[in-house]
Design brief:
- Keywords: Signal.
- It comes from Erythrobacter rubeus.
- The protein has one domain (about 1-190): Roll (FAS1 domain), CATH 2.30.180.
- About 45% of the residues lie in helices and about 20% in strands.
- The protein is built from ten helices and nine strands.
- The protein has helices spanning about 1-20, 25-30, 40-50, 55-60, 65, 80-85, 90-95, 100-110, 120-130, 185-190; strands spanning about 35, 75-80, 110-115, 130-135, 140-150, 150-155, 160-165, 170, 175-180.
- The strands form two sheets. The chain has a five-stranded mixed beta sheet with strand order 1-8-9-2-3, sandwiched between helices. Strands 4-5-6-7 form a four-stranded antiparallel beta sheet.
- Helix 4 (about 55-60) crosses helix 8.
- The longest helix is centred in the N-terminal third of the chain and has 20 residues, at about 1-20.
- The chain starts with a helix and ends with a helix.
- The relative contact order is 0.20.
Amino acid sequence: MAQQTRKTALLAGIALMLAACGSETDDIETANGVTDRSGDALAEIVGDVGTISIAADAFERTGLSGVLEGEASYTIMAPTDAAFERLGENAQETLENEERGAIVAAVLRDHMVPGALTPDAIRTAIEENGGEVSMATFGSGALTLSLDGETIVVSNGAGQSANIAGDPVVGQNGVVIPIDGVLVDPEALLGADGG
């Protein structure tokens, strides 16, 4: 448990350092493939990243986009549209159904962690912690971050995993990182709503 606490504290410290560094960090990160939109809130950024339009719509429909306009900082591991499409038609219908907002909000919260973490910061934390780090999500679980060669892999406790699948975008209150999978079991998703 103490090692887990150290890992979480390290990631939180890295997130705070990134937030405090201002434009100097923005310039370095932009050079490393990170899009700098530090003048914009995450709510606006999520809506502008074309490869995550399904996630953006879900944030809007559930009201979580309001959270992304606030002062607190978040890292959103945002599944791409292709990732949502791979869940299958029934799971997509669940996620798009207006009456199932609580289920959709839970899925989104399980893709959000506290602090503003770029892939470079995540990679550093993984390397400094012997191969992986875990962070509690704003949902009911945790995400484990590890490396497969040079690729950062994000996984949950239920066995789903995804890779970073696009350039991250840094905003004034966090980071959006596209990933190539949805960290939810489609069967569990259908079972949760009786579908």
